[in-house]
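User: Fold this one for me? It's SRPBCC family protein.
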Amino acid sequence: MKTVEFSTTTTLPATPERVFHHLADPANHVGLSPLVVEVRDIRREPGSVRFTAVERFAFGPLRHDNVIEVTLRLGEGTITGDVVSPGGVRVDWGYRIDAVPGGTRVVDHYRLSAPFGLLRFSVGQAKKVQAARGRELTRRFAA
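Assistant: Here's what I get for SRPBCC family protein.
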């Protein structure tokens, strides 16, 4: 399996603490990723949050709901997670949350591994999600 890494950076007009708490709350992930349509079974533990997410993929008139188990590991200015999806697609991601003049910089980093036949599709979807997440965070914190 091949692995691909990529990042985006978004600057938000909010404190790092506010951004951290927003990203650490699974309920806020609905709509944050255009694929995530439901979050359920939230379980909070010291230093982490576990939950079930439903990702919806649309292929023309067809749709597929992908149910995944997610663990967010909460660190000092970082949130990391990983998911193994059907087909052997593995995504490790992380947010680095830092104070900058006027707000907070969020670096959203992905490491994605997938079998040859799924790599291109998976990377394309992940990059779309990452770009949309930056736009949605900007919208949420600008309000």
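One thing worth pointing out: Residues 116-142 form the longest helix (27 residues).
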